[in-house]
Amino acid sequence: MACNTTDADPLSAAWKRIWGGLRRDLGGKVFDQWLRFARLGEYCELSRTMEILLPSDFAANFVAGNFQDRLRLAWRSANIGVDDVRILRAPDAASLQAYAPPAIEMAPEPVNADRVTGAKSFQPRHSFATFVVAESNRLAFHAAQAMGSPERPRFNPLFVHGATGQGKTHLLHAIAGAYAAAHPGATIIYMSAEKFMYEFVTAMRANETMAFKARLRGAKLLLIDDIQFISGKGSTQEEFLHTINEIVEGGARLAISADRAPHMLDAIDPRILSRLAGGLVADIQVAGLDLRLEILERMRTAAKDTQVPVAVVEFLAHNVRTNIRELEGAFNKLVAYASLTGRQIDLEFAQTMLADFVRANARRITIDEIQKLTAKHFKIDHSEMRSKRRARAVARPRQIAMYLAKKMTPRSLPEIGRIFGGRDHSTVIHAVRTIEALRAHDANIDADIRVLQRQLET
Question: What order of strands is seen across the sheet that includes strand 221-225?
Answer without folding.
Answer: 115-116, 188-192, 221-225, 253-258, 158-162, 280-284
